[in-house]
């Protein structure tokens, strides 16, 4: 898989790798599909994880392991959305805000997970070049994907928090294309957040018997 880690081109004095470019373009497409509530968001996310796993496997074990977890969560999301298909009037999944208990559980899981993963990265330095922010992004991504799988509007808030750290971290570590893509992620997140927010209000509104859909 050395070809995946070869240089694709140079942009603003930054060396763009094929793996970085292809994997993140698939990730960007997956986010756009998630905004549209298309079930194909999950196969695309799985494929993005698979490409990055292949690129990292053998020389960046920690990064490869993270992509393996992302692929597992993508399979979970596919399963959840298959079960929830047709809940909304347009035939897609319905979306909603999480309960306060769900929010508390996700925040607690994100905090505990970040600490645990960061300590693991610090204990095994070969797993990560920057343990704390790397752990934050990894755990935040998993929490965001879980919230997306459950059709929670908070999915977008989680992605926004990941972006705030992901953009500078990727530029600092030489993954310029990831940094640029994360900037676009930020714009998609804001649009997607607004769309899901409005849809959550429509999906929660009861339909009167005999009234047109």
Can you tell me about this structure?
The protein contains 7 helices and 2 strands; from the N terminus they run E-E-H-H-H-H-H-H-H. The chain has 213 residues and is mainly α. A hairpin with a 2-residue loop joins strand 1 and strand 2. 38% of the residues are buried. Residues 205-213 have low confidence and may be disordered.
Question: Can you tag this structure with a few keywords?
Answer:
mainly alpha; 70% helix; transport; disordered C terminus; 7 helices; globular; 213 residues; NMN_transpt_PnuC; transmembrane helix; two-stranded antiparallel sheet
Question: What gap, in angstroms, lies between the N and C termini?
Answer: 52 Å
Assign an overall shape.
globular
Low-confidence stretches: 205-213
- Strand numbers in spatial order across the main sheet: 1-2
Mean pLDDT over the residues: 81
Helix content: 55-70%
Question: What is the compact description of this entry?
Answer:
The protein is mainly α and 213 residues long.
What secondary-structure arrangement, pairings included, does this model have?
Blueprint: E1 7-11, E2 14-17, H1 18-35, H2 41-56, H3 61-84, H4 100-123, H5 131-149, H6 154-172, H7 176-204
Antiparallel strand pairs: 1-2
Helix pairs in contact: 1-2, 1-7, 2-3, 3-5, 4-5, 5-6, 6-7
Main location: membrane
Transmembrane segments: 15-34, 46-79, 104-124, 136-162, 174-193
Membrane topology: Multi-pass membrane protein
């Amino acid at each position: 898989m050395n070809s995946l880690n070869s240089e694709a081109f140079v942009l603003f004095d930054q060396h763009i790798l094929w793996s970085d470019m292809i994997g993140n373009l698939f990730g960007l497409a997956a986010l756009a599909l998630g905004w549209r509530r298309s079930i194909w968001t999950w196969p695309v996310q799985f494929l993005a994880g698979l490409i990055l796993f292949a690129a990292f496997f053998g020389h960046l074990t920690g990064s490869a392991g993270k992509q393996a977890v992302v692929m597992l969560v993508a399979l979970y999301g596919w399963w959840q959305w298959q079960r929830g298909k047709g809940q909304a009037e347009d035939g897609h999944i319905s979306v909603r805000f999480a309960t306060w208990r769900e929010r508390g559980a996700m925040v607690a899981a994100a905090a505990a997970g970040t600490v645990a993963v960061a300590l693991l990265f610090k204990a095994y330095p070969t797993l990560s070049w920057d343990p704390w922010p790397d752990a934050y992004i990894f755990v935040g991504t998993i929490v965001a994907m879980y919230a997306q799988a459950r059709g929670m509007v908070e999915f977008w808030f989680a992605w926004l928090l990941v972006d705030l750290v992901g953009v500078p971290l990727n530029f600092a570590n030489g993954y310029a294309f990831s940094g640029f893509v994360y900037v676009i992620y930020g714009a998609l997140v804001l649009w997607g957040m607004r769309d899901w927010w409005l849809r959550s209000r429509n999906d929660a509104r009861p339909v009167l018997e005999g009234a047109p859909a």
